[in-house]
Amino acid sequence: MRLTLQACAAGVSLLLVAGCQTTPDALAPLPPAQELSAALGEQSAAPGVVGAILRDGAVTQLFAWGGADCDGAGAADVHAAYEIGSISKHVTAVALLRLWEQGRVDLEGPVGDYLDDIPDAWRRVTLRQLATHTSGVPDYEEAGGYGVYETRPMPAEVYAIVGGRPLDFEPGTRWSYSNTGYFLLSRVVEQVSGERFGDHLRTRLFTPLGMRRTFMGGYAPADARLAQGCKPAAGESPGRVAVPPIHEASTFGAGGVSTTLQDWALWDDALHEGRLLSPRAMEVMLTPQRLSDGSETGYGFGLFVDRFRGARRIQHNGQTQGFVADYQHFPDRDFSVVTFGNMYGANLDGVARTLVLRAMPDLGYGQMREPADPDPSRTQAVRRALRQALLNEQPADLLSEGMSRFATEERFAAVRARMRPYADHAEGMVYLGSDPADGERHIYRFRIDGEPSYLVVVWRQGKLAGVQRADN
């Protein structure tokens, strides 16, 4: 896709490159959808899941599982627009950084210079602190719950949810996720641009890239196909119920964008090939913020920056009252993975990891060579701890407080039952390695019914502090 840049007139600012890109009349057809395994789909707990591997602005591999409706009817729609929740945050960050490149906002300036109607306690917080979750401004979602996303409040009503509270901490001293920060940044973009936020995204970002089915909540094109969002039925009632689409007023750029797999391929390519932001602005976006004590947060502007099994990764997930989404980009391999599910509270971790390893099979646990175990006594203790956690063997002396609750509380009974085979086969478990970024996470291989399976074990201060199944 770098040829697009070369085709633009020499000397044109990178901020304008999207404008000289040719907008396609029609997107390339999607490849045939591959069926996700039933185990992965059921593990997600969503009625339907769709996902894609993205390269060079196109969907190169497509995946789907389950139904389109809350009752599981129909087929998960790979062409529909899904709400992406907090993945929207880096879209907002792009809009803000473009204004910064134009000299229209000051990232180190206080938000009170741009907004007059906010609580006094927030006025001195800088735009950078809002964008990097280091502001201390309380999170209205945490305080008000997801029900706010089914309403259309005025900004003052959103502020009122947490406006009476002091800052959670002195700005710049801590990291704490706050949707309020991106709500405020969206309104700054409105004030400075003179456009409603959804209009600004559509005209300045989405339309120039050919993203005709991507929109802020409440701005859906007339011909858009909208996925149905779902949440658990109230009380003790079984099943799921449909929820209304999210609206801009309840979230703005904190979580209000909806998009399709094909459209997101265009966004992904434009972002990482430099057609949305200059190298200077991309560096701002992807440089993890440091706190006042010098420690690093791992979060830039709307994106986490970390590693997956040693591979550099840029990522974020999202959730609304009816959807979940996951987005991961691997700059050294030049591909991305995106997954959408139509259920509040669904888990896309296993689906996303499976797609990532389709693209990078060399990072699969099955490719790891069996090393000499550096701590056989720890491995033996892990065997005992797994039996304590999954079979309730006593004494439970090798379990952390959290794992002790997992071992005994009824709400975890179904999970314990699914994981019991690991305790039954613990004598045959083999150490494969440890996470280079976290020396407390260790990988073990099991043989269950003749097939390899894997556990990531968190071993902290001589106790089992966590366990995660990882079948690839």
Task: Summarize this structure briefly.
The protein has helices at 2-7, 17-20, 38-44, 88-101, 127-131, 140-144, 155-162, 179-193, 197-206, 248-251, 261-272, 279-286, 349-359, 376-391, 401-408, 413-424, and strands at 33-35, 48-55, 58-66, 82-83, 215-216, 230-232, 240-242, 257-259, 304-308, 311-319, 324-330, 335-341, 430-435, 438-448, 451-460, 463-469. With 472 residues, it is an alpha+beta fold. The strands form 4 sheets. The protein has a 7-stranded mixed beta sheet with strand order 1-3-2-12-11-10-9. Strands 13-14-15-16 form a 4-stranded antiparallel beta sheet. A 3-stranded antiparallel beta sheet has the order 4-8-5.
Note poorly predicted spans.
1-25
Number of strands: 16
Number of helices: 16
Terminus-to-terminus distance: 31 Å
**Beta-strand percentage range:** 15-25%
Overall mean pLDDT = 91
Structural class: alpha+beta
Largest beta sheet, briefly?
Answer: 7 strands, mixed
Helix content: 25-40%
Strand order of the largest sheet: 1-3-2-12-11-10-9
Shape: globular
Give the C-alpha Rg.
23 Å
How does this model look, in words?
It is a single chain. Helices cover 31% and strands 20% of the residues. The longest helix is centred in the last third of the chain and has 16 residues, at 376-391. By secondary structure, the protein is of the alpha+beta class. Helix 14 (376-391) crosses helix 15 and helix 14 (376-391) crosses helix 16 (413-424). It is globular. A hairpin with a 2-residue loop joins strand 9 and strand 10 (311-319). Strands 1-3-2-12-11-10-9 form a seven-stranded mixed beta sheet. The model is unreliable at 1-25 (pLDDT under 50).
